[in-house]
Design brief:
This protein is of the alpha/beta class and about 350 residues long. The chain contains 14 helices and ten strands. The protein has two domains: about 180 residues, 3-Layer(aba) Sandwich (Rossmann fold); about 140 residues, Glucose-6-phosphate isomerase like protein, domain 1 (Rossmann fold, 3-Layer(aba) Sandwich).
């Protein structure tokens, strides 16, 4: 993205993406770190929310907790399905930018009525209906988003949870870490997307995002629908070469997120040669496929990968002449509580 190009920066979506480095620097990391003791005492944390407020923030935190080998339980589910679970052990964190997401509020009301005393909210809206149901609510500093697709708020939510989980593994010098991450995110957001990559993705009716179950590829599949108006499909791990190739067409495209080197030959055999579709990658070093090479940072690569995917999708949307801010059917609040 070019912050000085009027054709791009006239969109709120682009402005909000480019504001992400400042959001990272301004993160209230001490508030997130302060929750670590509660999670330790409760023995775990259940993440819930809908759409972008759950996908990347929760799955990124869970993946990190597993890499750290933490002893606490970290789990995630959509709020409606979570109503079927027994959640009396552990803290519960509900994320909702608007603080009005119906499913989350109804879950919290039920848990509160059952006597659950460790309900916490993460929202971008002060004094929201969600706040009334929580023991404590944390308000993001990113401010209101005017574009329908959530962007800067997703990164702030994900970092809030990441700080919390990381503090259970040991203290960190967060101001320095966040400052470095902000600089690298700025670099990624302003990378020029190769015209061939943008053109091939713009021509594809379906874009598949293949990667780890850490929220990045899944979130980008949702953003594909919202930003490029194309069908975005999340393929976890190596799922993209384990059967789905039967229904793929040569016009489709796959973007691999930091792919496993051991799978390079299989991706080429099954996807590029077998189906004949376009394969690209986002990675910290070149791959056998057209690759957007991005910087790397310990425990922070997911944020850089997400922003690289945003950059790709904006390039596709601009090429197609799409109104990036206003999808036809998608709404800012998917299912708003009306009282």
């Amino acid at each position: 993205m070019n912050p000085n190009d009027p054709a791009q920066n006239r969109f709120a979506l682009v402005q909000e993406m480019l504001a992400t480095p400042d959001v990272i620097r301004g993160l209230d990391w001490s508030a997130a770190a302060g929750m670590a003791g509660t999670v330790r005492d409760k023995g775990g944390l259940f993440f819930t929310g809908e759409g972008s407020s759950r996908i990347m923030p929760a799955h990124n935190a869970i993946a990190l907790a597993r890499r750290f080998g933490l002893g606490q339980r970290f789990e995630c589910e959509g709020a409606r399905q979570a109503m079927e679970y027994k959640l009396d052990r552990g803290a519960v964190f509900g994320a909702s930018n608007s603080g009005k997401t119906r499913e989350v509020i109804e879950l919290f009301r039920r848990l509160k009525a059952q006597g659950h005393d460790a309900l916490y909210g993460l929202t971008a809206t002060p004094e929201s209906p969600l706040e009334r149901e929580c023991e404590q609510t944390f308000v993001l500093g990113c401010g209101k988003e005017n574009a329908v697709a959530a962007t800067k708020s997703v990164v702030e939510q994900a970092l809030f949870y990441q700080v919390l989980v990381s503090e259970l593994a040991g203290s960190n010098e967060w101001p320095a870490v966040l400052g470095e991450l902000a600089g690298k995110v700025r670099e990624v957001l302003e990378l020029e997307i190769a015209s061939d990559i943008a053109k091939r993705l713009a021509a594809a009716p379906t874009i598949l995002w293949a990667g780890r179950n850490d929220g990045v590829a899944e979130e980008l599949s949702l953003k594909t629908c919202e930003i490029s108006r194309k069908l975005g499909v999340f393929c976890e791990g190596t799922y993209v070469v384990h059967g789905i190739e039967e229904v793929l067409e040569p016009q489709d495209a796959v973007v691999l997120i930091d792919p496993y080197e051991a799978e390079f030959d299989k991706y080429k055999e099954v996807l590029a040669d077998g189906v004949g579709l376009y394969v690209a990658a986002i990675a910290p070093k070149p791959t056998p496929f057209p690759t957007l090479v991005i910087p790397s940072m310990e425990n922070m690569d997911t944020h850089l990968q997400l922003c690289a995917g945003w950059n790709m999708l904006v390039a596709v949307g601009l090429l197609l002449g799409i109104d990036l801010d206003n999808p036809v059917r998608a709404r800012k609040v998917g299912n708003e509580l009306i009282e």
